[in-house]
Amino acid sequence: MSTAQATWPAEAGVGERIRTEVERAIQRNLKGLEFLSSPAPALGQSPKDVIHTRGTMRLYHYHPMADEIYRVPVLLVMATTNKSYIFDLAPGSSLIEFLLKRGYDVYVLDWEAPRQSERHLKLEDYTLDFIPDCIRRVQQRSGEHDVSVVGYCMGGVLSTIYAALHADGPLKNLACFTTPIDFTQLELFSAWTDQRHFDVDHLVDSVGIVPPEFILTGFSMLRPASTVTGNVRLWENLWNDDFVKQYRMVDRWSNDTLPLAGDYFRQTVKELLWGNKLLKNELRLGGRRVALSNITVPILHVVAEHDHIVPRAAAAPLIANVGSRDKEEVVLKGGHVSLVAGPKAVKRLWPKLDDWLGERSV
Fold first, then answer.
1. Is the domain of 124 the same as that of 29?
2. 25 and 165 inside one domain
3. Do 21 and 170 fall into the same domain?
4. Catalytic residue among 153, 166, 263, 301
5. Which residue among 88, 182, 263, 307 is the active-site one?
6. pLDDT by 10s per residue, the chain, length 362
7. Same domain, 263 and 124
8. Total domain count for the chain?
9. Are residues 92 and 140 part of one domain?
């Protein structure tokens, strides 16, 4: 059943249904021309200051929107493959705007494309250097010692590793969205990088920086029919301005994939995907063992019920293995992206994050 058919009133007669479908067909053609000719929507428009830049790293501080601000600032950490504006698509569709209006002091750790001179960046650089550096800047800017960290996908992995290696703080709370811990459960990624056929050393040594096209191809392999399915859904809903607006914003973000530092990619494949060392507590960074049990701060992990990128089986061990007494896993309807951005996120994830952080930010 098409989306258009599904929205017909049950009592509608044949004539009314025909008129509705004809009107929507006309709208599809008109909107299709508009879709093809209009520029991509502007994203990430919430007012902010760039308070620190360093190589690939960008640290933003967003302008407050509430009279009263929670004491504990919040640092959002994005995966190194994507831009952080998924948190700030547009007014009314922005997690950052929502948090600001709810009274949070919001900072975001974002990334730029690494240059060839940065091809040797590793997990150590992100978790023992970049994140701690940003937290020090947040402390200086806010005047507060405690900081809450929120990580999305691989940004959650980096945040989790940081938390495990900095058990003495200054981390106040840790929230993760769709964060993989058992990498053996990322079955399609594992198939894509099967060490019997995939020579990661040859790739990295040849290119230095892993191009975004390679990353996008890997994601496409996860769901080969997703492009066709997405185009069909777009066509069926071209008459719907709200759907088209949301589709264009998320589609632009999805295709705005960043290249990866070669050694970081090599390390992720060998240590995490092949060795599953994060779950086994065998990962060593900077001469220190990353033990999930070292994490004792309050922790929230939100998992998407229909996540084809990070299925629940890959995410579940986080809460099971941390040493925190105050810990919670929540499974919400949605996919890997719709969990965080879009109409479902507005009703499900955002209020949950607000309730959880609010109780622990005073």
1. no
2. no
3. no
4. 153
5. 307
6. 344 444 445 455 666 665 665 455 555 455 554 554 555 566 678 999 999 999 999 999 999 999 889 999 999 999 999 898 889 988 888 999 999 999 999 999 999 999 999 999 999 999 999 999 999 999 999 999 999 999 999 999 999 999 999 998 899 999 999 999 999 999 878 888 888 889 999 999 999 999 988 877 765 555 544 444 444 454 455 445 565 555 555 566 566 789 999 999 999 999 999 999 999 999 999 999 999 999 999 999 999 999 888 999 999 999 999 999 999 999 999 888 888 888 889 999 999 999 999 999 98
7. yes
8. 2
9. yes
Q: Structural domain of residue 23, as residue ranges?
A: 3-37
- pTM for the full predicted model: 0.82
Instruction: Say if CB 47 and CB 62 are below 8 A apart.
Output: yes
Q: Which amino acid is at 222?
A: L
- Let me know if residue 106 belongs to a domain: yes
**Catalytic hit among 52, 166, 301, 336:** 336
In a domain, 162, yes or no: yes
252 lies in some domain: no
Q: Give the number of residues written for the chain.
A: 362
CA dist 309 to 7, 162, 178, 219, Å? 30, 23, 9, 8
Task: Report d(CA 76, CA 61) in Å as an integer.
Answer: 10
**Has 153 been annotated as catalytic?**
yes
Reduce the secondary structure of the chain to three states and give it as a string. Answer: CCHHHHCCCCCCCHHHHHHHHHHHHHHHHHHHHHHHHCCCCCCCCCCEEEEEEECCEEEEEECCCCCCCCCCCEEEECCCCCCHHHHECCCCCEHHHHHHHCCCCEEEEEECCCCHHHCCCCHHHHHHHHHHHHHHHHHHHHCCCCEEEEEECHHHHHHHHHHHHCCCCCEEEEEEECCCCCHHHCHHHHHHCCCCCCCHHHHHHHHCEECHHHHHHHHHHHCCCHHHHHHHHHHHCCCCHHHHHHHHHHHHHHHCCCCEEHHHHHHHHHHHHHCCCCCCCCCEECCEECCHHHCCCCEEEEEECCCCCCCHHHHCHHHHHCCCCCEEEEEECCCCCCCCCCHHHHHCHHHHHHHHHHHCCC
336 is known as an active-site residue: yes
Tokens standing for 340? 């965080």
Please say if 176 is a catalytic residue: no
